[in-house]
């Protein structure tokens, strides 16, 4: 008998009808002879509604109380799901994060998992029941308080339970068919990826693919969990995110996919003294703001002036904070002006095959050049090349790159209403 | 420093504005130098909305899962209240029933309290914080599961914590000014009762007064807790429900108040053989339906026939079930017909002073007779007289009795919109 962990997001359990539909799928999995653990998010917009209520009573909610508040969301969905399955004549029991043994540190709102002890889930499974677990939430042994893992935490709960219980696969149900070679809303010929390594998936997620949360993929990679991303609206297989064994030859396509991100902005620090330690000084300062810096580019120094420009990208929402921090240290750093540009787009080409295939960058740059798209920044990792272009050219850029690397499918991809999440 | 337990019902925390208003009152109590424990119900109609959702997914929700579902309601209100108080700069911490040490048996939906161990509340109080506790919910040590105490459970939670923590008083906040000598919507001259014994309060609650739940009053009586029922919309004192010490002379008015109940129906079993054991047979059968029988009257047997009629009252909602049960056993019991009458009203006159004051019944019957109101059934306890009349005469009956016993006040009582709960 294999053990399968299934995770259903908020849109899959948005109302009574959706919950009944999901319950049927879970019961089918159980009746096919599997042990089933289900991780569930809060219904539809519940979390946002609770956050809104919190905002109405106080401008800066106490993190401990905010966690207490938000965990009510999964409590509702898991209880409804369990009673629906029970009503279908199949044994099911719901468990809070705490009851499921999701032990975390005490960092409210962004708790890290420190231990997973699913004793009660194992007991329920041994008794023949389906275990329904609240995603997103945990329990701190240190403070005896309820915690949450932060947005996307339900994916992480599912992967962590799959690891702790030795599940065969962790199925993440969403409202798209799987991971695509590019966003099907932009590239109509985008094709569903059947198999992708967790390393590639990490790069795609970091580059803007929203199907899986980076944190869950990282956890899966570290603990050897296979993820199956699939649609809760169909029975067709989705995308397997797997971990190749050491030395295993990955006979996969060179390129896994193309991702685009329009949520970043670029800050340029103009006329910085080109002396050792300057970059360290700047980014130590930026780090104090807690901003997530992505790409960094330093122009070649103009020999005559001994000064240089430094550009970096970061999420738009963090722009103002970082600009202010830099401005206060203008004299100490010694730059002349700051430029803020939120009209950029970032394209990332990801593929484990890049490691051993020369010419990938050349092909990428050529495709963009032939389409008349200007490249403003470049950064690379072992299995990823990212470029920054003007925001209004990013969709064209994704399409030409998708075609250039032979990723276009025969047919147009099916795009559901309200796709993405 | 005295410890005060305050309980706020759903209408007192129905939205963000109400929560802020309640938070101010709690902070005032704390700043007046008291230790404060607050018990809170779910916001407004949350519980009914959750029950409705459950009904949408399955006709007969599993009790364990229903408890898991419903307890989300108080989790939301207590977290919002705690963060509101925190936002006002006063330390506050919320606790679930389980965290507050409300240990119950495992009877889901109607759990009984078996132990109260408010260790974490005591710690929070010692640290100078206000403790906010979810009402209505508990935890079974036996099954390690979450339980609920049933409707009105929040009052019981408050009284139980007041007992366990040795509180000076348990304040139950509601949307009326206190307990009245009669329903102010019926008797305009009804007056607020300043002090009433828990014994009298029990009889009033059993007779239809909806201000306090019987169970909470019973708990308070058994554990010597003083309850102060008051309005969350004003600062004036409400009604103290107290426990006279042994031998204490109760120098209170003879009559505490008049209550009326229109939710009962009467079943009459016609032509029952008047032989020993027949009543036992009938009410053993009725007991198997779980119905709550109130008054029972057996007519004098007609000597010629050797047969009698037996009437009893019960909540209307339970009528059909009991009628069906009796009908199936018609031949065995040997009656001729069943009559169902849901047009009755029950009036109860309550007062500890009755014990030592003769003539109370005579005065009651005379007042009703003079008003032309017919009495259909009579039942008495040591401190209560109940009579059944036609439903459409019950309000007149309450008014004439209220006047006859000198309970009318000088001024009309203030009736709030949406009074009662």
List the uncertain runs of chain A: 417-421
Describe the oligomeric state of these chains in a short phrase.
homodimer
| Number of domain modules of chain A | 2
CATH class group of the largest domain in chain A? Alpha Beta
Taken as a percent bin, the fraction of beta residues of chain A is: 15-25%
Q: What is the residue-averaged pLDDT of chain A? A: 90
Chains forming the largest contact: A-B, 37 and 37 residues
Over all CA atoms, what is the radius of gyration of chain A?
23 Å
Which geometry of chain A do the CA atoms define?
globular
- Output the number of helix runs of chain A: 12
Organism (chains A, B): Lysobacter korlensis
Domain ACT (chains A, B): 267-343, 349-421
Enzyme class (chains A, B): transferase
InterPro entries (chains A, B): AceGlu_kinase-like_sf, ACT-like_dom_sf, ACT_Aspartokinase, ACT_dom, AKii-LysC-BS, Asp/Glu/Uridylate_kinase, Asp_kin_monofn, Asp_kinase
3D architecture notes:
- The structure is a homodimer of 421-residue chains.
- The radius of gyration of chain A is 23 Å and the shape is globular.
- In chain A, 49% of the residues are buried.
- Chain A has an eight-stranded mixed β-sheet with strand order 3-6-2-1-9-11-12-10, sandwiched between helices. In chain A, strands 5-4-7-8 form a four-stranded mixed β-sheet.
- Chain A has twelve helices and 20 strands.
- Mean pLDDT of chain A is 90; it is low at 417-421.
- Chain A is α/β, with parallel strands linked by helices and 421 residues long.
- The longest helix of chain A is centred in the N-terminal third of the chain and has 25 residues, at 63-87.
- In chain A, helix 2 runs antiparallel to helix 3 and helix 6 (198-206) runs antiparallel to helix 7 (214-223).
- In chain A, 33% of the residues lie in helices and 25% in strands.
- The first copy, chain A, has two domains: 3-175, 3-Layer(aba) Sandwich (Carbamate kinase); 247-415, VC0802-like, CATH 3.30.2130.10.
- The interface between A and B is large, with 37 and 37 residues.
């Amino acid at each position: 008998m294999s053990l399968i962990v299934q995770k259903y997001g908020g849109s899959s359990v948005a109302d009574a009808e959706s919950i009944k539909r999901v319950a049927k799928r879970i019961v089918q999995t159980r009746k096919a002879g599997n042990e089933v653990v289900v991780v569930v998010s809060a219904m539809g917009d519940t979390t946002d509604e609770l956050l809104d209520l919190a905002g109405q009573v106080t401008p800066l909610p106490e993190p401990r109380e905010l966690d207490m508040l938000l965990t009510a969301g999964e409590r509702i969905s898991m209880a409804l799901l369990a009673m629906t399955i029970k009503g279908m004549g199949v044994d099911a029991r719901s468990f809070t994060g705490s009851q499921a043994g999701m032990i975390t540190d005490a960092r409210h709102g962004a708790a890290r998992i420190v231990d997973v002890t699913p004793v009660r889930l194992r007991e329920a499974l041994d008794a023949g029941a389906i275990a329904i677990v609240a995603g997103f939430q945990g329990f701190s042994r240190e403070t005896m308080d309820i915690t949450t893992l932060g947005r996307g935490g339900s994916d992480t709960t599912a992967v962590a339970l799959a690891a702790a219980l030795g599940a065969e696969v962790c199925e993440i149900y969403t409202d798209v068919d799987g991971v695509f070679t590019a966003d099907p809303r932009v590239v109509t010929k985008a094709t569903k990826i059947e198999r992708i390594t967790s390393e590639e998936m990490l790069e795609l997620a970091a580059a803007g693919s929203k199907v899986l949360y980076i944190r869950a993929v990282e956890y899966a990679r570290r603990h050897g969990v296979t993820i199956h991303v699939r649609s809760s609206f169909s029975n067709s297989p989705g995308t397997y995110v797997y971990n190749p064994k050491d030395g295993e030859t990955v006979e996969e396509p060179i390129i896994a996919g193309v991702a685009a991100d329009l949520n970043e902005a670029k800050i340029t620090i103009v006329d910085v003294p080109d002396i050792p330690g300057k970059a360290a000084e700047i980014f130590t300062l930026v780090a104090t703001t807690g901003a997530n810096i992505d790409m960094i580019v330093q122009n070649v120094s103009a020999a005559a002036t001994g000064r240089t420009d430094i550009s970096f990208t970061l999420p738009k929402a963090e722009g103002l904070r970082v600009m202010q921090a830099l401005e206060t240290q203008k004299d100490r750093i010694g730059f002349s002006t700051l430029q803020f540009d939120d009209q950029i787009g970032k394209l990332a080409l990801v593929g484990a095959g890049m490691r051993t295939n020369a010419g990938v960058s050349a092909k990428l740059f050529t495709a963009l050049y032939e389409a008349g798209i200007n490249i403003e920044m470049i950064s690379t990792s072992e299995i990823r090349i990212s470029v920054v272009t003007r925001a209004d050219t990013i969709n064209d850029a994704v399409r030409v790159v998708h075609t250039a690397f032979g990723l276009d499918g025969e047919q147009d991809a099916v795009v559901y209403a309200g796709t993405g999440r």
